[in-house]
Design goal:
Layout: H1 11-19, H2 25-43, E1 46-49, H3 51-66, E2 78-82, H4 109-116, E3 120-125, H5 159-166, E4 172-176, H6 183-189, E5 192-195, E6 216-220, H7 223-233, E7 263-267, H8 268-271, H9 276-291, E8 295-299, H10 307-322, H11 340-351, H12 354-366, H13 372-396, E9 399-403, H14 418-422, H15 429-434, E10 438-445, E11 451-457, H16 463-476
Parallel strand pairs: 2-3, 2-4, 7-8, 7-9
Antiparallel strand pairs: 1-3, 4-6, 5-6, 5-10, 9-11, 10-11
Length: 494
């Protein structure tokens, strides 16, 4: 039986079927676990599969349904978690040797909310080490492969989550997005990936990369399912000092609403740096929105092109501070030595991979005396300019339209130059710097029949309008541009 079969109608429909007793949460979990076992040796989406815990959770859902109780909005729906989300008693490694064997004593807030909503957590997904990368090649556990073409990357850093959803192994997954790490792999894998407004989703229990940029968000095959998952994990959390106060409005109903009357700006500056297929998808998406009643026009926001430079000063600076805690004393790996300083140096040298070391050194440099003002402080001023540019744009437009990625999925090993890899996030980084929401919607097939996502950007707390536009794009998209796909060695797999 195909893993796609139990949730062919989507996660929301699956939850409703289990709630009505038409489907068994246990059967769905068994099918999903069987499919993961059959496909993951090739794809390597998962760092850990929690089979026993998943089956216990599924049985609890079935018992509740049989007793006439509602287990929650995600009743029995299997969900995968990026392996930087603390999960009580389950190894949480961030795909790094330095956290080998560490089992958190608590759940991240989003994990607790998933459990409360009746979701069945099936495992932890692979990522670029400490979420630093755009291809999921920087994992200490080896790369994840794109199910559309297993010789290619799934994007990153949340590549394991994106690939698991794209291959139909799970209907929903969580990732984290610091500079595009949900949206870029969503585009490369032909799934929906949503980065919420900064503070809308608690970061408590997310292993920090860059604390002013990190945000947790959903992957799904459908926009409605992503919105439903966001409703579950969003909301104020007193354990996170950056968590926004106030109630979260219903979001899933917005997906079916017409975009008629909305003002949409196409970020023309980005189209120049996108591949022809990616730029064409944005233009065709804009045409579809016009046909649906939206007002669309090009807008120039050249300040956004400076986001990449600012990000690669701010994010490493915050990373160098956050990763100082991994010293061989409190967490994971320890390489013994005759004195504490040598032990600390040896542990970090062996425990961290090349990309993490690169960013720690860069971040430490830009925060050092004599260079702070020239680099870090200047990057923060550029960040302010980007936020001001967005503010002016959103005075004219409700949402913005742009490519998600400059290209389709590239071959594993093709981008050995770090700068070339960093350019993968050119179109996604500005939303992180501003703290704004954005979503990638699979829209078309590009080179080599690989998926292309179109990105919808919105101002802070602009998720309702953003989801209206995302739903309209999904309805106008090429039907074969999204998963699930069966793992395929070259070219697109259906």
């Amino acid at each position: 039986m195909s893993a796609a079969a139990p949730f062919a109608g989507g996660a929301v429909a699956l939850a409703a079927a289990i709630r009505r007793g038409e489907e068994s949460a246990r059967r769905v979990a068994e099918v999903v676990l069987e499919e993961i076992a059959g496909a993951d040796d090739l794809l390597h989406c998962f760092n850990a599969v929690t089979s026993e815990e998943a089956l216990r959770a599924a049985d609890a859902v079935d018992v509740a349904v049989a007793a006439g109780r509602d287990p929650g909005p995600l009743c029995g729906v299997p969900v995968a978690l990026k392996d930087n989300l603390c999960t009580r008693g389950v190894p949480t490694t961030c795909s790094s040797r330095i956290l080998e064997g560490w089992r958190p004593p608590y759940d991240a807030t989003v994990v607790s909310r998933l459990r409360k909503a009746g979701a069945v957590i099936v495992g932890k997904t692979n990522l670029d080490e400490f979420a630093m990368g755009s291809s999921t090649e920087n994992s200490a556990n080896g790369p994840t492969r794109n199910p559309w073409d297993t010789s290619r990357v799934p994007g990153g850093s949340s590549g394991g989550s994106a690939a698991a959803v794209a291959a139909g192994l799970v209907p929903l997954a969580l990732g984290s997005d610091t500079g595009g790490s949900i949206r870029q792999p969503a585009s490369l894998c032909g799934v929906v990936g949503l980065k919420p407004t900064y503070g809308l989703v608690s970061r408590y229990g997310l292993v920090a990369f860059a604390s002013s940029l990190d945000q947790i968000g959903p992957f799904a095959l459908r926009v409605e399912d992503a919105a439903a998952l966001l409703e579950v994990i969003a909301g104020h959390d007193p354990a996170d000092s950056t968590s926004l106060a106030g109630e979260v409005p219903p979001l899933a109903p917005e997906v079916g609403r017409s975009p008629a009357g909305l003002r949409v700006g196409v970020v023309a500056d980005f189209l120049v740096d996108a591949s022809p297929a990616c730029a064409d998808a944005v233009r065709r998406g804009a045409d579809a929105l016009v046909a649906a009643g939206a007002a669309v026009e090009d807008v120039a926001i050249p300040e956004l092109l400076h986001g990449l430079s600012a990000y690669y000063l701010i994010a490493p600076a915050e990373a160098s501070s956050n990763l100082a805690r991994y010293d061989g004393v409190r967490y994971g790996l320890r390489v013994d030595a005759d004195d504490v300083a040598t032990m600390n140096a040896r542990t970090r040298s062996k425990g961290f991979g090349a990309e993490v070391k690169r960013r720690i050194m860069l971040g430490t440099y830009v925060l050092s005396a004599g260079y702070y003002d020239a680099y870090y402080a200047q990057a923060q001023r550029v960040r302010t300019l980007i936020m001001d540019a967005f503010r002016r744009a959103y005075e004219r437009f409700d949402v913005l339209l742009a490519p998600t990625s400059p290209s389709v999925a590239f071959p594993i090993g093709a981008k050995s130059d770090p700068l070339e890899m960093y350019l993968s996030d050119l179109f996604t980084i500005p939303s992180n710097l501003a703290g704004h929401p954005a979503v990638s919607v699979p829209f078309a097939l590009g080179e080599e029949n690989l998926p292309v996502g179109v990105q919808v950007l919105a101002p802070a707390l602009g998720e309702p309008a953003m989801l209206r536009v995302a739903g309209a794009l999904e309805r106008a998209a090429a039907p074969d541009a999204r998963g699930p796909v069966r793992p395929h060695g070259a070219g697109a797999g259906r």
